[in-house]
Specification:
Number of strands: 11
Structural class: mainly beta
Strand content: over 45%
Distance between the termini: 39 Å
Mean pLDDT: 98
Largest sheet: 7 strands, mixed
Oligomer: single chain
Length: about 120
């Protein structure tokens, strides 16, 4: 079965870049037709889709975050990575990696099948 696990620093200073890695086991991130996303949940708020990297390597980001977001992958390690630049305290959230098959409803976190456990990231000086 597919398992995902987030890793990275839990504390990031304002104006710096938030970097997280999702390690995938039990399935390849290049398998047709799976999409691999980053999703976050700020305190007291709902889930927010950040962006995906598709099985093909194509990426797409939430318009509200596109200017600050980069998702990449290392297929040899079966990992994909989130970089969110110029962070502020408003970026404080639990960050999840997640996956679903097919393109439909990619922006809806409730449609994702596989999830990591989530990792808390706090932006503070």
């Amino acid at each position: 079965q597919v398992q995902l696990q987030e890793s990275g620093p839990g504390l990031v200073k304002p104006s710096q870049t938030l970097s997280l890695t999702c390690t995938v086991s039990g399935g390849s991130i290049t398998t047709n037709y799976y999409y691999w996303s980053w999703i976050r949940q700020p305190p007291g708020k709902g889930l927010e889709w950040i962006g995906y990297i598709a099985y093909s390597g194509n990426t797409y980001y939430s318009p509200s975050l596109k200017s600050r977001t980069s998702i990449s992958r290392d297929t040899s390690k079966n990992q994909f990575t989130l970089q969110l630049s110029s962070v502020t305290p408003e970026d404080t959230a639990v960050y999840y990696c997640a996956s679903k098959k097919y393109y439909s409803d990619y922006v809806n976190p409730l449609k994702y099948t596989y999830w990591g456990q989530g990792t808390q990231v706090t932006v503070s000086s």
